[in-house]
Amino acid sequence: EVQVVESGGGLVQPGGSLRLSCAAFGFSLKNYWMHWVRQAPGKGLVWVSRIDSEGTTTKYADSVKGRFTISRDNAKNTVYLQMNSLRDEDTAVYYCVFTSHHYLTNWGQGTLVTVSS
Amino acid sequence: SSVLTQSPSVSVAPGQTARITCGGDKIGTKSVHWYQQKPGQAPVVVVYDDSDRPSGIPERFSGSKYGNTATLTFSRVEAGDEADYYCQVWDGGSDYPVFGGGTKLTVL
Questions:
Q1: For residue A53, how many C-alpha atoms fall within 13 Å in the half-sphere facing its CB?
Q2: What's the number of CA atoms in the CB half-sphere (13 Å) around residue A30?
Q3: Cα of A74 to nearest chain B Cα, Å
Q4: CB neighbours of residue B14 within 10 Å
Q5: A 60-99 residues with CB below 8 A of B?
């Protein structure tokens, strides 16, 4: 089955760091753009970051710019989101999405990040 | 960057027609995509490029656009259509996707 599986979420204190991973199964990630989208509890979808298929271009939402870093290791079929200086408002389910379009076709099930003291 | 506006909620009786709108500046020049999200699940594309449906999405779901407003229409609404729906466009200037705030469809 073609899918992506997120991991690395959990409870972290404000100011702390986490690294999320998104592993692909049943296909190769190397031809796809990869995105991270988050959803705070009871709130809507918010795009966070994206990386192109070769890892040469990255983009970030203003709310995470300078704190989050997206990267990919095509040999390991995995994409990462390094999250530093975490804030309460970063609490959310983080979804990994792969696509070859300007819409987001294939979503993982998400991993919950909770920032709290 | 683009800002997309959706009504927070829409309610409809089973078997009736429901419409969810998505408004935004210059939306007429962009392709609009729609997602369905049920509680505890990841979003799923139900309409892409304004009016195309992925395989497996019922014909009861249709998308349209007029001026700066896109519409997702549900004909013969069923209880299983109850979900949150999000519109999305690609912001060409910033080169990333932008979502609307979402609309909760309630089937009475």
A1: 8
A2: 5
A3: 21
A4: 12
A5: 61, 95
Going by C-beta distance under 8 Å and a sequence separation of 6 or more, which residues neighbour residue A104? A35, A37, A97, B33, B35, B43, B45, B88, B97
**How confident is the model over B1-32, as pLDDT tens digits?**
679 999 999 999 999 999 999 999 889 899 99
For residue A21, what are the CA distances in angstroms to A4, A40, A56, B45, B50? 10, 19, 19, 23, 32
At B80, phi and psi to the nearest 5? -70, -10
Contact A35 B88 (CB under 8 A): no
Interface probe for B, chosen from A3, A45, A48, A99 (most Cβ of B below 10 Å), is A45
Tokens 């009016």, residue?
B51
Q: How far apart are CA A8 and CA A15, in angstroms?
A: 17
The pairing of beta strand A58-60 with beta strand A111-115: unpaired
Partner B contacted by A105 (CB < 8 A) = yes
Residue B26's pLDDT is 82
Q: What is the pLDDT of residue B66?
A: 94
Instruction: Tell the residue number behind the tokens 């990994």, with chain if given.
Output: A96
DSSP B5-63: EE-SEEEE-TTS-EEEEEE-TTGGGS--EEEEE-TTS--EEEEBTTTB--TTS-TTEEE
Q: Which of residues 3-32 of A touch B (CB under 8 A)?
A: none
Q: Give the model confidence (pLDDT) of B51-64 as tens digits.
A: 999 999 999 999 99
Q: Give CA torsion, residues A110, B106, A44, A17, to 10 deg.
A: -40
